[in-house]
Write a structure and sequence with these properties.
heterotrimer, A alpha/beta (about 475), B alpha/beta (about 270), C alpha/beta (about 500), A: alpha/beta, eleven-stranded mixed beta sheet, ten-stranded mixed beta sheet, 11 helices, globular, C: about 500 residues, alpha/beta, 3 domains, 18 strands
């Protein structure tokens, strides 16, 4: 009884599935060089960026869809996707008062208030709707500290030298199939620059919303922390419910110089498709951080609950001496969702350290795979890695796979990996119930207990949000 | 303490129950009044642990006949958590380990659920910490255990103390302690038994389930019941436990054989 | 599978398997007056060129088989100086259309596979970390008369068998049972039971490529251990300084309740390939304690495909120690067909200089309540490459499985490399599956402690290394001591502290 009931608990309806009825400018479906040029022209980009896009596009044409992940999905028709869609709002407004109220209302409904009076305190938000950024809050306040936080389209115009210096240096345009596609057609995303010695005074956040049913979202995020700088950044994502699949192929690049620290958190709640696996987002994302400087630190925390397909490996290249990489992940899959996610920790520099904590929860007929690589290069003397990968299975039709790959070429290094599998046992549930704790709360307590090591890593401001999201997936009637 | 006029807390009538299609209880009758301490003794497989699980509402056990009234209410109709909130407590023979769930948090949520049921105010984190520190005294438990995951990595004795601590916090009216003495050394047994004695009052009742006399040396029962083949075979005072200690359980077999053809399942 | 790709020059890699098949079969066909079908009996060039159309050719070969006398298809040897050919062994089926047909079909399949597929390369996922250059350098032919003479010479120097153990010498050509009295309860496997050990003709899972090498030559030894019997067997191959390929296909059936201690020993001192394919069916309630020792040299290659099928309530303990080979690839594959069985796997591999030591293990539970306890240990010194891939599959039918896998690797040199990749696939909720992997050097605190007691760094390192090895060595069958596995493991180069 309890297994079925637990299954019901994680099968909550998706709350963000509404569509905003707004006039949208779209370019025709399909992809060729002209489309790449058109996107670049719409964004009034400098020549170097158009060249970057065209080079990526030509590389993409030569590449194959990767097939090594434990995922099954139909071939994607790249000519049946719209590569640029924007709410018809002529230019980004200087003041939020001028933003279309429908858009503000949309983000209100998503729990991301953008209007001045209701803003999340101490969190600056960049709101991206389909292909464009519609608002960025607290820009001025951040500018006082020298922090740049804006959409990447604005950054291209206002800080082209920074973009040219860093874009594509962590994830080269030919890194993989989806990164190449993104490099060719990326629309919008966030740019963050924290100058020398500055600790970013508030949390930064980007909220991605896919609204159109036939549009792909190809966002591009670049975060640079100069020497001694630090920042904590969170992204959130939702999409309406369509019975077709939408493609989301993002690239995120992080650069940390000497003594810099970047904490990147994701609460991903794209639409996952219905209980029969119809619809949902195909999420093919390349996220990589480059600990370029000594003693630099990059930390990824992700809570993945959405998407029909997740293909995502937020990684760290630990080049600097004594640099630190971290990956904390909770991935919940249900129904027919498929997730193949994990991380790569590439230890190059001496005494570089990394920690991996992955918690996978599989329910329904879903498939949840952890795939990781820990690589210790010949020069990474004294490097250390510890990985912990746990799976929780709910029901006997869900799959939990673990593929932790280790390569070491440095004797004076230590790599340690542990993994375990558990379920919510009837005995545990009964024990909690026999102490007066209700069924739902008991399940919820155990799931949050299972995920605690990861939730502890989320910034204070968002810990509640993540907890809410999990609770949302877990609340409901007892079956 | 036997008071014939004390209110009946638990009334078990002709209880039949099974687990995994296998009948274990074959008509248990037992009445427990406020203030009383009962001991159910019997061999392994006699059905005594099944009785405790059925009373607490373990989902693996099915009641096929009979009734259990708790303060006049149909206990069997309640979910396990409702029973706990109303004041029925089961001390587990094997307390379950729950990795990742903080013991303190677990105790607080459970305590507040019980308090809410009684119309009392929920305790905030600080008030609860005060309460739990006070109750820790009952079982002389190290506060460090509060910070750990529920029962995870606890020794046998620590787990049993944690059970009695829960009992001290939930203040049940009927506490069923299933083999609370198993796996305890003599010092731990004294501490646990001391806790149980301290918590016993004229308002509540205790049902001890045990295999051995030694628990009854430190907790004095008002009634001793001998269970065999899924029913209570004989009831007496504390001297019955001593007799069992003396003569062993063999005479039980003789008495059973004399009875009507009662099936001898193991449970 | 289009002809276009074959307009490129035929590489040595592509031709290797075909050349070997030509050698294996050419000799045989010659013996019976020739086989007109070029796909099997032809020159290596011809055979490899036939690669792209292998399916069609394979069908032809099949047809040819049906026409030929089945007995003639078993390995023979054209060298008159050779010991008695296997066709004289009890394995030779007596008539056409006989019960050994599955063995013949399985052999033909293996031959077609070798003809069709080039040597594995790193472009293939199962070989991603493994350089097969050492294998490509092996002459793709059976031992010649001179090679057999060299091997026989080396075999004379082998230590005598341990008391209570029956030794069978496997030279790939002569009948290992000739002049041997088998222990009580052990007897040749009747032809009609070969199928119980051979892979199913419709096997859905791809068999390892390396298994095809031995399978292409056909069964060399097929035995069964009768129900409730207890026996000890030692299977030894000694290639000595011979060059070429030593194919050893072994079929073993343990009837219900049988108990067998089995020790496989494979040694080589020259540029030879010892290719083992063992098919072992362990019946319900049977117990197998199985050790494997493979001691090679820098030019030698060891390739073993060991498929074990376990019946309900059976117990298998398999321990392997592999060291010294230019390339070793061990693929223990274990299936608990009805669950409820116990499997204990222990393995130790060491590579030094430019050696490659690779183990790909796979365990699959097809019924409930199976148990697995797996420990893999690896030592990489010099410029050695150590590879471990450990797959564990727990499908839905395998509820209440309890599986644990641990991989511990020691990296002793900054030119060496270790690749380790556990692979757990679980579709059952009520299971306990844990795995762990570590890659480290020797523990510095332990080394220091020993040194602070006056022990030299080199000795301290060796002591710790011995300790590291002991955990696996102590689980080998007792007859393993003869072969001084620890000495062979450590004798090559004092470990760097």
């Amino acid at each position: 009884m309890s297994t079925a009931a637990v299954g019901d608990l994680v099968s909550q309806p998706y709350r963000y599935g509404f569509v905003t009825d707004i006039e949208t400018e779209k370019i025709p479906k399909g992809l060729d060089e002209d489309v790449v040029r058109l996107i670049s022209a719409k964004k009034e980009e400098p020549a170097f960026l158009l060249d970057f896009r065209l080079r990526a596009y030509r590389q993409w044409l030569q590449m194959q869809t990767p097939d090594w992940a434990a995922l099954g999905f139909p071939a994607i028709d790249y000519q049946d996707i719209i590569y640029y869609a924007a709410p018809r709002q002529q230019s980004k407004k200087a003041s939020l008062d001028e933003v279309d109220p429908k858009l503000l209302e949309t983000f209100d409904k998503l729990g991301i208030p953008l209007s001045e009076q209701k803003r999340l305190s101490n969190v600056a938000v960049d709101a991206v709707f389909d292909s464009v950024s519609i608002a960025t809050t607290y820009r001025e306040k951040l500018a006082e500290h020298g922090v740049i936080f804006c959409s990447i389209s604005e950054a291209v115009k206002e800080y082209p030298e920074l973009i040219e210096r860093y874009l594509g240096t962590v994830v080269p345009s030919n890194d993989n199939y989806f990164a190449a596609l993104n490099s060719a057609v990326f629309s919008d995303g966030s740019f963050v620059f924290i100058p020398n010695g500055v600790e970013c005074p508030m949390e930064l956040s980007t909220y991605f919303r896919i609204n159109s049913g036939d549009t792909g979202q190809f966002e591009r995020t670049l975060i640079v922390a100069e020497e001694g700088a630090s920042v904590s950044y969170l992204e959130g994502c939702t999409a309406p419910m369509f019975d077709t699949n939408q493609l989301h192929a993002a690239v995120v690049e992080l650069v940390a110089l000497d003594d810099a620290s970047i904490k990147y958190s994701t609460v991903q709640n794209w639409y996952a498709g219905d209980e029969n696996g119809v619809g949902g987002i195909f999420n093919f994302v390349t996220k990589r951080g480059h600990c370029r400087g000594d003693r630099s630190r990059i930390s990824w925390t992700q809570v993945e609950t959405g998407s029909a397909i997740t293909w995502k490996y937020p990684s760290c290249v630990l080049q600097g001496a004594d640099s630190v990489g971290e990956f904390y992940s909770v991935a919940l899959t249900n129904h027919h969702q498929q997730a193949d996610t994990g991380t790569k920790m590439i230890h190059v520099g001496p005494r570089s350290r990394s920690t991996i904590v992955s918690k996978g929860i599989s329910a329904g007929q879903s498939s949840n795979s952890y795939r990781g690589l820990v690589q210790i290069g010949p020069k990474a003397v004294g490097a250390r890695n510890f990985s912990q990968c746990d799976s929780m299975l709910i029901g006997d039709r869900a799959a939990a796979n673990t593929y932790p790959y280790i390569r070491s070429q440095q004797p004076d290094a230590a790599v340690e990996h542990e993994a375990s599998t558990c379920r919510i046992s009837e005995d545990q549930l009964f024990y909690l119930q026999s102490r007066g704790i209700g069924f739902e709360e008991a399940v919820s307590m155990m799931v949050s207990g299972f995920c605690r090591d990861v939730f502890n890593q989320l910034p204070m401001e968002f810990a509640a949000e993540a907890d809410k999201l999990l609770a949302l997936k877990l609340e409901g009637s007892v079956g | 303490m036997i008071r014939p006029d004390a209110p009946v807390l638990l009334e078990i009538r002709d209880l039949h129950a099974s687990v995994a299609e296998q009948p274990i209880l074959h008509g248990v009758n037992l009445t427990i009044r406020a203030g009383e301490i009962h001991a159910v003794m019997g061999r392994n497989g006699s059905g005594k642990s099944t009785l405790s699980k059925v009373l607490a509402g373990h989902p693996a056990y099915t009641v096929s006949a009979g009734s259990v009234l708790y303060r006049g209410e149909d206990l069997l109709a309640l979910d396990p958590e409702q029973r706990a909130r109303r004041g029925v407590f089961l001390g587990f023979q094997y307390p379950v380990e729950i990795p990742g769930v903080s013991n303190l948090e677990f105790l607080r949520v459970a305590t507040n659920a019980r308090r809410q049921e009684r119309g009392e105010e929920e305790l905030d984190t600080f008030a609860f910490e005060d309460l739990v520190r006070e109750r820790l005294e009952v079982v002389k438990m190290d506060p460090a255990f509060l910070e750990r995951s529920v029962n995870e990595g606890f020794s046998g004795g620590e787990k049993k103390r944690n059970e009695i601590l829960q009992m001290a916090l939930l203040e049940p009216l009927v506490a069923i302690l299933d083999e609370t003495d198993s796996g305890l050394d003599i010092d731990a047994l004294r501490i646990v038994a001391g806790g149980v004695n301290q918590l016993a009052s004229p308002e509540n009742a205790t049902l001890l389930i045990t295999h051995y006399q030694r628990l009854l040396d430190v907790i004095t029962p008002d009634y001793v019941h001998v269970m065999a083949a899924g029913r209570i075979l004989r009831t007496g005072g504390k001297e019955l436990a001593l007799e069992l200690e003396d003569r062993g359980y063999d005479w039980v077999d003789a008495e059973l054989a004399a009875l009507a053809p009662a099936p001898l399942e193991v449970g | 599978m289009v002809a276009v790709s074959w307009t490129e020059p035929v590489t040595a890699l592509a031709a290797w398997g075909a050349a070997l098949v030509a050698d294996l079969d050419g000799a045989m066909d010659g013996a019976i007056g020739g086989d007109s079908d070029g796909a099997i009996g032809g020159a290596p060039e011809l055979a490899s060129a036939a690669g792209p159309g292998a399916d069609a050719n394979g069908a032809d070969a099949n047809g040819a088989d049906a026409n030929g006398a089945a007995g003639s298809r078993l390995p023979a040897d054209s060298d008159p100086a050779a010991p008695s050919p296997l066709s004289a062994s009890p394995l030779a089926p007596s008539s056409a259309g006989d019960p050994a047909a599955p063995a013949l079909e399985s052999r033909r399949q293996a031959q077609r596979r070798l003809q069709r597929e080039p040597l594995p390369s790193r472009r293939q996922e199962p070989w991603r970390f493994t350089d097969t250059a050492a294998l490509a350098a092996i002459r793709p032919a059976r031992f010649s008369g001179e090679d057999r003479r060299l091997a026989a010479l080396a075999a004379e120097a082998l230590p005598p068998p341990q008391a209570g153990w029956c030794r069978l010498l496997l030279d790939g050509a002569s009948d290992p049972l000739a002049g041997v009295s088998l222990p009580e309860g052990v007897e040749p496997l009747p032809d009609d039971q070969w199928a119980a050990c051979l892979p199913a003709a419709d096997a859905s899972e791809e068999e390892p490529w390396i298994g095809a090498i031995a399978a292409a030559a056909g069964p060399l030894l097929a035995l069964r251990v009768r129900a409730e019997a207890m026996a000890r067997l030692e299977l030894v191959s000694e290639a000595g300084a011979a060059t070429g390929v030593l194919p050893l296909q072994l079929l073993l059936l343990l009837e219900p309740g049988a108990r067998l201690e089995l020790l496989q020993v494979h040694r080589a001192a020259g540029a030879s390939l010892t290719a083992v394919q063992a098919r072992i069916a362990v019946g319900a309630g049977a117990q197998l304690q199985h050790g494997l020792i493979a001691q090679g040299n820098d030019d030698g290659v060891f390739a073993a495909d060991l498929a074990l099928r376990q019946g309900f309530g059976s117990q298998v303990a398999f321990s392997s120690v592999v060291s010294g080979w230019g390339l070793s690839r061990l693929e223990p594959r274990l299936v608990q067909e009805a669950g409820g069985a116990r499997s204990r796997l222990r393995s130790l591999q060491r590579c030094d200089r430019r050696q490659v030591a690779d183990q790909h293990s796979a365990v699959r539970f097809e019924g409930p309540e199976g148990q697995l306890d797996q420990l893999h240990k690896a030592i990489a010194a010099g410029s050695g490459r150590s590879v471990f891939n450990g797959a564990v599959a727990v499908p839905r039918a395998a509820q209440r499985t309890d599986a644990a896998q641990l991989s511990r690797s020691l990296l002793l040199s900054d030119r060496a490399r270790i690749d380790t990749k556990p692979q757990l696939e679980i579709v059952a909720d009520d299971v306990k599956c844990a795995h762990g992997a570590t890659v480290t050097r020797l523990q510095q605190e332990e080394l220091f402690y020993l040194r602070s007691r006056g022990i030299s760094a080199a000795t301290a390192g060796e002591l710790l290394l011995r300790g590291f090895c002991a955990e696996v060595l102590q689980e080998l069958p007792e007859a393993a001591a003869l072969w001084q596995p620890l000495h062979h493991l450590l004798g090559e180069e004092a470990p760097a502290p």
